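queue> pop job 88
queue> type: inverse folding (structure -> sequence)
queue> payload:
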């Protein structure tokens, strides 16, 4: 969908959601300019409309554009004639060159246990780029947990506080494409000048450099020059350096030279704080029950949490429905993190029991008769019979081909012992619960 039709389809929605006066003046003054890298630029023809649009209507405009386009993370920027003044143009061009996204900054980021160290390091770096021992900073963790957001936050902070510094955000694919283009077009000098003159290099998702040896080599040289000159480098990846087996060791050892820290899955309190922050930023309000519902059910990552909120608000807007718990349950059913129960099988039971007692599953199936193994083995057999519909000989097969009388003996022994041994009974109960994923 092109920007003009997106804007035209948004207009009736906007007209519905604000007073006619505002619509007829501020909104009508806007023309859509461009849609690039996820950012829509709208231009009002009056400078004095710009602050009030930004303050009061930008979130509504963003929401409408997101719902008509179906693109959940569109960002909207308002410009006015003064932005095209010489100095502002230069400033904007410089900012555009950094590839940074304004909305990813420290103010919009929520601190929690899951990102504590990453956040602290990011703040320290933003204050003193290149001068801390966190160089490079290597952030790793699963998707949608805030790595990219933290990275941009550092960049945005530095651009504002130290405007003379040369900052660049690039994905590892972006770097690769740049490198390949430079080679093909014989512009390697330009390429080197661009990357080696940086004060801060933010490179996102380095795991995608896998198998690109030429690019890895170029990054290796870039790294050495920047690092040698105390320039700040920040990397992100889905894995810690030592797990990036398909990258060259000399590169991953560089990644590990400064501070490595992970971002992990947020706990309930952090998810709740993030949801509140998003609602606040977007000037949205939803019933407490719906907030609890989202926070409780969307647990695997923050991108999904945002996605849920966008989907729900967009749906409510398009259908003119009130946001209720029932609506949330209906609209979000595809996004809910299923309450995953493990598939209970004999090997699964063996796994849980073995790890509880600090032995291996091979021990359970093996021949050793030491008490520290016999007891877990008998418990695992007992639980297999109790929790699964498996015949005695079949259980025996999973335990190194023991015959059915051995299995009966084990099961009876445990059944008798838990009658008298309180401690054992508690242990077996706990094991049963963890086997079932409760
Ligand atoms: P990653 O790079 O780890 O895959 P992102 O940085 O792209 O994750 O985060 C996904 C989305 O979740 C972004 O829109 C980001 O703004 C949001 N997000 C992640 N962590 C936080 C946080 N701690 N506070 C606020 N928003 C967050
Ligand atoms: Mg990312």
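queue> result:
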């Amino acid at each position: 969908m092109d920007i003009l039709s997106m804007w035209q389809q948004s207009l009736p929605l906007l007209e519905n959601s604000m007073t006619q006066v505002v619509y007829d003046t501020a909104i009508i003054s806007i023309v859509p300019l461009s849609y690039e890298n996820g950012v829509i630029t709208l231009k009002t023809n009056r400078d004095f409309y710009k602050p009030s649009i930004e303050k009061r209507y930008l979130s509504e405009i963003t929401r409408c554009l997101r719902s008509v386009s179906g693109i959940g993370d569109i960002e909207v920027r308002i410009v006015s004639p003064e932005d095209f003044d010489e100095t502002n143009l230069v400033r904007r061009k410089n900012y555009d060159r950094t590839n940074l996204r304004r909305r990813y900054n420290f103010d919009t980021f929520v601190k929690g246990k899951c990102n504590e160290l990453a956040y602290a390091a990011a703040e320290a770096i933003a204050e003193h780029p290149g001068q801390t021992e966190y160089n490079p900073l290597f952030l790793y963790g699963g998707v949608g947990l805030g790595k990219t957001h933290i990275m941009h936050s550092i960049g945005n902070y530095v651009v504002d506080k130290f405007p003379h510094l040369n900052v660049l955000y690039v994905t590892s694919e972006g770097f690769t494409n740049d490198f390949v283009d430079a080679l093909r077009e014989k512009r390697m000098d330009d390429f080197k000048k661009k990357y080696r003159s940086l004060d801060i290099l933010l490179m996102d998702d380095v795991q995608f450099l896998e198998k690109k040896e030429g690019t890895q080599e170029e990054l290796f040289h870039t790294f050495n020059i920047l690092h040698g000159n105390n320039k700040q480098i920040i990397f992100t990846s889905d894995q810690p350096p030592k797990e990036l087996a398909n990258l060259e060791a000399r590169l991953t050892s560089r990644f590990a030279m400064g501070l490595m820290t992970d971002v992990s899955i947020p706990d309930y309190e952090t998810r709740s704080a993030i949801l509140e922050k998003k609602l606040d930023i977007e000037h949205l309000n939803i019933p407490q029950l719906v907030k609890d519902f989202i926070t409780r059910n969307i647990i695997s990552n923050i991108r999904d949490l945002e996605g849920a909120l966008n989907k729900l608000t967009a749906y409510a807007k398009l259908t003119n429905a009130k946001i209720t718990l029932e609506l949330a349950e209906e609209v979000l059913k595809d996004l809910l993190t299923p309450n995953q129960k493990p598939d209970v099988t004999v090997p699964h039971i063996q796994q849980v029991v073995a790890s509880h007692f600090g032995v291996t599953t091979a021990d359970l199936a093996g021949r050793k008769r030491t008490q520290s193994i016999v007891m877990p083995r008998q418990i695992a057999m007992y639980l297999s019979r109790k929790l699964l519909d498996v015949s005695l000989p079949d259980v025996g097969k999973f335990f190194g081909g023991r015959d059915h009388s051995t299995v009966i003996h084990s099961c009876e022994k445990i059944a008798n012992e838990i009658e008298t041994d309180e401690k054992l009974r508690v242990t077996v109960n706990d094991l049963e619960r963890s086997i079932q994923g409760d």
